[in-house]
Amino acid sequence: TAYEISTRDWSSDVCSSDLRSHWIKDLLERVHAGLVVAVEEMANGDLDGALLDRGVDLVVCDLAECPWALPEGLHLAAIPTRDEVCEALVLRTALSDAPRGLPDLPDGARLGVTGARRALQLRSRHPNLRFLELNGAIDERLRRLEAGDADATIVAAADLVRLDRSNRIAVRFDLAEMLPGAGQGAVGILARTDDPRTHMLLEMLNHWPTRFAIEAERALLRELSAEERAPVAVLGRAEGDSLLRLEALVLDPAGGPPIRRQLTGPLQDGEELGIRLAQELREAGAREILARS
Question: pTM for the full model?
Answer without folding.
Answer: 0.91
